[in-house]
Amino acid sequence: MPSLHDFLLAVGFYTRLPCPTKLDYRRLPFACAYLPLIGWMVGGFSASVFWVALQIWPQDIAVVIALIAGILLTGAFHEDGFADVCDGFGGGYDKQRILDIMKDSQIGAYGALGLLLLMLLKFKLLAGLPAHLPPFALLAGHSISRWFPLYLMFRYDYARTQPSKSSGAVFKPDAKTLALAGIPALFPFALLPPQALISLIPMMLITLGLGRYFHRHIGGYTGDCLGASQQITETVFYLFLGALWTFI
Q1: How far apart are CA 125 and CA 116, in angstroms?
Q2: How confident is the model at residue 232, as a pLDDT?
Q3: What is the predicted pLDDT for the residue at 1?
Q4: Which of 19, 60, 178, 214 could form a disulfide with 127 if both were Cys (CB 3.0 to 4.6 A apart)?
Q5: What's the predicted TM-score (pTM) here?
Q6: Please, are residues 72 and 16 in contact by the beta-carbon 8 Å criterion?
Q7: d(CA 225, CA 20)
């Protein structure tokens, strides 16, 4: 059932926004179901910052400021996971080595290059859209991309056996929770052309591929894998939207 308490836990864990201190953190796993709503908050904030910045500076500058706003709001939570996955799977040769590298707080060459190229791709894609479209793209991209980590949690097991920074939020959503979380994730698509819904197909295919890849190499997922899946599917959404806009 929807719970304000669990939603506030999600806000406190996935963003830098202040939350009440008297929360039951034993319920943190259930807060994962609110990830798409967190996407609404992050995407809405980034979209608002973009619109304000666009009144003052050119679109490419406004995009950079909007991306920075989103990173500041989340503390680069998912971007950090993506960088760790690049380092772990790029430099690891077996399950334990991959997990050890991902747990290391220092960023390596794979992570630095992967994060740089990812952010550059996001920038170019959003800057290349018509000026009225990036706010809606940010809102939809942040929301829908946070549903796909839930699917990985539904489909696979947590790979680590020892405690980690994300193990406290490990959750195995059932099909009903997955479906309910998908409803708010899809709402922002009402602000986009109907054809944008087709982007769900490549996003799902990418998620299926990532899930199989993670499972084959480490036997499941970690928090970093979930963060990487969010970042990758968000970028795939912008890729599809940019391609779609050239034909409509």
Answers
A1: 14
A2: 98
A3: 56
A4: 60
A5: 0.94
A6: yes
A7: 29
- Cross-strand bridge partners of residue 158: 221
Phi, psi of 165 (to 5 degrees): -65, -20
Closest by Cα among 19, 30, 24 to 181: 30
Centroid of chain to Cα 236? 11
The three-class DSSP label of residue 164 is coil
Nearest-angstrom CA–CA distance, 135 and 150 = 24
How far apart are the C-alpha atoms of 10 and 101, rounded to whole Å? 27
Alpha carbon distances (Å) from 228 to 87, 102, 179, 224: 12, 12, 22, 6
Are residues 71 and 173 in contact, defined by beta-carbon separation less than 8 angstroms? no
DSSP code, position 23: -
pLDDT at 168: 54
Output phi, psi for 162, to 5 deg: -105, 155
The residues of the chain scoring below 70 in pLDDT are: 1-2, 162-169, 248
Indicate the burial class of 48 (C-beta count within 10 angstroms; 0-12, 13-18, 19 or more): middle
Tokens 């979380």 belong to 181
DSSP code for 158: B
Residues in Cβ contact with 14 at an 8 Å cutoff, skipping those fewer than 6 apart: 35, 38, 74, 77
pLDDT, one tens digit per residue, over 107-137 is 999 999 999 999 999 999 999 999 999 999 9
Whether 220 contacts 156, CB under 8 Å = yes
